[in-house]
């Protein structure tokens, strides 16, 4: 065998090894990308399902339930080529049946009274999660721009509803416990929060109710020789912490 043939065989062997290594690299990258995509779709699907089931009934509407079902179907259908299990196919069928009901879709979420700061933070976290899902879906083109903006506005409205309920309940609890000073603080926070909304007229009725409660609590404080003030600093801190950190709700769909 001539030296030229040997050289060509060696070069050919090296090229084959390089090709095999490149193909293996591409296969591994493809597997990693599919795994990443599968994990991402499963996460988004789970988040939407959890929101659909766990949002308090006073914030859930048929329109929102329908939207979350649509998003779940979108992620489930994208996931199907990566997970062709019977469970995935069953879930897709169930979601299609729900969506076919339109706005007649059943809403079985039970109301969850917001009576504590911990509960208020829990619901706010859910709204932040919902905001993130809607915002990303709008950027990815899953939702049209106008629809995305509409739902981001609705989430801001739900956040205001949360604050109204929390401040109102906190004030009523303080009155029942004969702490008019704490009640006044809670109602005052609620009034201030509503007055600084971009569209305060939308919440005029709720504002009037809180103002009446505030006037009543203030009168009770003036009637007492020593206004109740115990734990007021702790209450103030809790109210301010809930009221703050709302910058996320001001994010727009587009940069």
From TrEMBL:
Ranges that cross the membrane: 6-27
Region (Disordered): 223-255
Highest taxon, organism lineage: Bacteria
Sorted UniProt keywords: Membrane, Transmembrane, Transmembrane helix
Name under which the protein is recorded: DNA repair protein
């Amino acid at each position: 065998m001539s030296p030229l043939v040997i050289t060509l065989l060696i070069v050919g062997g090296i090229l084959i090894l390089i090709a095999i290594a490149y193909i293996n690299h591409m296969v591994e990258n493809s597997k990693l990308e599919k795994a990443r995509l599968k994990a991402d779709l499963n996460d988004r699907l789970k988040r939407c399902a959890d929101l659909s089931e766990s949002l308090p009934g006073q914030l859930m509407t048929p329109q929102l339930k329908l939207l979350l079902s649509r998003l779940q179907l979108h992620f489930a259908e994208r996931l199907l080529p990566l997970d062709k299990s019977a469970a995935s196919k069953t879930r897709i069928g169930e979601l299609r049946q729900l969506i076919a009901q339109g706005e007649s879709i059943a809403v079985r979420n039970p109301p969850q009274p917001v009576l504590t700061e911990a509960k208020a933070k829990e619901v706010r976290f859910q709204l932040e999660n919902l905001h993130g899902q809607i915002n990303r879906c709008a950027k990815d083109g899953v939702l049209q721009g106008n629809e995305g903006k509409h739902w981001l506005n609705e989430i801001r409205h739900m956040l205001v509803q949360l604050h109204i309920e929390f401040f109102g309940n906190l004030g009523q609890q303080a009155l029942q416990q004969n702490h008019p000073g704490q009640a006044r603080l809670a109602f005052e926070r609620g009034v201030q929060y509503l007055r600084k909304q971009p569209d305060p007229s939308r919440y005029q009725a709720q504002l009037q109710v809180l103002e009446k409660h505030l006037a009543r609590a203030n009168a009770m404080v003036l009637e007492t020789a020593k206004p109740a003030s115990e734990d007021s600093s702790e209450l103030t801190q809790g109210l301010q912490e809930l009221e703050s950190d709302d910058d996320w709700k001001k994010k727009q769909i587009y940069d």
